[in-house]
Design a protein that fits this description.
With 672 residues, the protein is an alpha+beta fold. The strands form seven sheets. Strands 13, 14, 15, 16, 17, 18, 19, 20, 21 and 22 form a ten-stranded mixed β-sheet that branches. It has a six-stranded mixed β-sheet with strand order 5-6-10-9-8-7, with helices on one face. The termini are far apart.
């Protein structure tokens, strides 16, 4: 039988299908990893894994095709790699398909994945969820940064880091993929790689981004069991009555009632919840929720624990795929954005079970999430006061695992503090000169009621908790936490202005005088972050300038809120001299789902209008420490050396500011 020829894949020649098939088989794992990295992170990790494999498996044309025509120019092979001829062609096909998953018609609902992501296709997995093995904080940070980038930038990033293509090779591939500005996509990808501090090539090869080596987790077993039962019940009308009677007689779970957790059923067995009876936080390398002891007088109340576990088993069905609140069987359900609501796959750890101000409260931790169940202590668990809430707390640390909101009432919120908290106090964020006051804490670590910050309207005060960690751990320090309506309080930090010639400064605790004065001007802005699953908020004073006409000194700041789900939101503000410490600042720009003002977005520029004490209007602009010049266009045109400028401008008319960095790159204003 004659064999098909294998011509060399030089420019303009045809590539034999055998060559493409061999390249796909030999480099399958690399192609799947590359596709997984380029796919939008709006897909769940399970869907990204299956989609990546599906795209690579469908990369080749129909079986009747014998020859494939490559691109006009040849893409250079990765450094140190011996590519099979045809690999570049297959890579181009999977990249093109991966980029299409990010495009959606203008009429398509924004909250839904793109239509292409909803198409069924092989491989298909039923009853299990697949996800790559978890990486460390560096991998998580990179994945978040890639999720905030566009598809072209992700493609340029993986071509440069995973396949190690030179700049011209990256541009060559992007041109053929139809990317309108390949150079810009490559520049953004280079900034992502620079932010990884030389480790980008290593990170993209880690287990976090390997969809060929996955872990499995079952879907909601109880919900699936109920669906199967419904299907059987609806199979024929002739046996409906008999089936229902059989279920009632056998004591099986009716779908409308609370789903009891039978003893011995594994992960949801109240007898098997993990209880830690001794304090082990000072004898472990992980100072987070895994080190919390079990507390509360009802820790052995299996009936109460069963009710709490039943609620968790129902949470997935009550909240659905996208719902943040819901109600079922008399229980109010809630979850923070980005938190899976389904029941845990292993026995959760019991953090607390006891009575608090007339309510029974249970707190669980399953490694990635905390869950709180609350019911009236004298009730039957199905009244209006019964509630269940679940929130992400993965990768918590000594500060973000320092407390949980245990109970809310008209008197305020009671927090359950970590065992490593030695001193507890409360202060008003809007009064930086007022000393902190001692906060009462019970032997179980429950605080006295803390007034809740205002949810909207007036903002006369902003209560925060100030904790000091124990000297028995290395991280002995004070830090601030504030309540934004979620289970876990939010950590507040501060980054001071850059020093002359000094390296970039890192966020520090917001307990110093400079930080407190800064946060006094910004505290009321925290109200806009309620209900978003915020983990920490940092304010970075990135520039200061002397205002003209005796206007005093102004400070430019970028306030970044990072969520447990990984997304970030920023607002830029201009602090001009004020008559009172808590005078509100002027917000000059906003951006959501951005890496700005983080380690993956270390450069920032902003512009604003300002009226001098003499009544003259000025256009102001400022950039971070690596900005060498600022350019204005619109109502005012010109180039200004340095990191700040102030020029006379008309009261009306748009002024756009762009920055030039020391390395020659350009940067737009945040929010443009």
């Amino acid at each position: 039988m004659p064999t098909r020829s294998r011509p060399s894949p030089t420019a303009g020649e045809r590539i034999d299908l055998d060559l493409a098939e061999a390249a796909l088989v030999e480099r399958y794992a690399r192609l799947v990893r590359l596709t997984y990295l380029v796919l939008p992170t709006s897909l769940t990790r399970h869907r990204r894994v299956l989609t990546a494999h599906g795209i690579v498996q469908r990369a080749l044309p129909g079986t009747g095709t014998r020859l494939l025509r490559p691109a006009p120019r040849r893409v250079p092979a990765p450094r140190g790699a011996h590519e099979r001829p045809g690999y570049a062609w297959v890579r181009e096909q999977v990249l093109r398909e991966a980029l299409r998953h990010e495009r959606r018609p203008s009429w398509w609902p924004h909250r839904l994945p793109p239509p292409r992501a909803l198409r069924p296709g092989l491989p298909t997995v039923i009853g299990l969820r697949l996800f790559p093995r978890a990486g460390g904080t560096e991998e998580v940070a990179l994945d978040q940064a890639l999720g905030q980038a566009d598809g072209a930038t992700r493609a340029a990033f993986v071509l440069a880091t995973l396949d190690e293509l030179p700049s011209e090779g990256v541009d060559d591939v992007l041109v053929r993929l139809g990317v309108p500005d390949p150079a810009r996509a490559r520049e953004r990808a280079a900034r992502l790689a620079d932010a990884a501090r030389g480790a980008a090539e290593t990170l993209v090869r880690s287990d976090e981004f390997d969809p060929s080596s996955v872990r499995t987790r079952p879907t909601d077993l109880l919900r699936r069991r109920h669906r199967v039962r419904l299907g059987l019940l609806a199979g024929t009308a002739a046996v409906v009555t008999g089936t229902v009677l059989g279920l009632v007689g056998s004591g099986a779970t009716p779908l409308t009632g609370p789903a009891p957790v039978p003893h011995g059923s594994g992960a949801l067995d109240p007898e098997r919840v993990v209880a830690r009876t001794r304090t082990a936080w000072d004898d472990t390398s992980r100072v987070d929720f895994t080190a919390w002891p079990t507390r509360g007088a009802r820790a052995k109340d299996t009936e109460l624990l069963a009710k709490a576990l039943n609620a968790w088993a129902r949470a997935g069905g009550a909240l659905g795929e996208d719902g943040r609140t819901g109600r079922a069987a008399g229980i109010a359900f809630a979850r923070t954005p980005g938190t899976p609501a389904g029941a845990p796959t292993g026995s959760p750890k019991l953090l607390f079970a006891g009575d608090v101000e007339g309510d029974a409260v249970v707190l669980f931790h399953d490694g990635d999430r905390v869950a709180r169940y609350t019911e009236p202590a004298a009730g039957n668990g199905a009244g209006n006061g019964t509630a269940f809430e679940v929130a992400r707390v993965d990768d918590a640390d000594v500060t973000t695992a320092a407390a949980l909101v245990l109970h809310r009432s008209k008197a305020g919120a009671r927090w359950l503090t970590a065992p490593w908290i030695d001193e507890s106090a409360t202060r008003d964020l809007l009064r930086p000169d007022t000393p902190a006051r001692a906060l009462g804490v019970s032997k179980d670590g429950i605080t006295s009621p803390l007034p809740e910050p205002p949810a909207g309207g007036g903002c006369g005060s902003w209560p925060v908790a100030q904790f000091r960690s124990s000297a028995r751990i290395v991280e002995k320090h004070s830090f601030l936490l504030t309540d934004l309506g979620a289970l876990s309080p939010v950590h507040l930090t501060y980054t001071p202005p850059p020093g002359a010639g000094a390296p970039a400064r890192q966020p520090r605790e917001a307990t110093g005088s400079e930080a407190l004065v800064t946060w006094a001007r910004l505290g009321c802005r925290l109200a806009g972050l309620r209900g978003q699953g915020v983990r920490a908020v940092n304010t970075w004073d990135f520039a200061a300038q002397r205002l003209p006409e005796g206007g005093g000194e102004a400070v430019w700041a970028c306030t970044r809120a990072d969520t447990w789900a990984g997304r970030g939101e920023v607002f830029l503000s201009l602090r001009t001299p004020a008559a009172r410490p808590a005078a509100p600042v002027d917000v000059v720009a906003r951006a959501a789902d951005t890496a700005a003002c983080s380690r993956f977005g270390q450069h920032v520029v902003a512009g604003a209008r300002w009226k001098s004490p003499r009544g003259h209007w000025y256009a102001l602009g400022a950039g971070s420490r690596r900005v060498s010049a600022l350019t204005t266009s619109g109502a005012v045109s010109g180039t200004h050396a340095g990191t700040t400028f102030a020029v006379r401008a008309p009261e009306d008319g748009a002024v756009r500011v762009r920055a030039r960095l020391e390395n020659g790159e350009s940067l737009d204003e945040v929010g443009r």
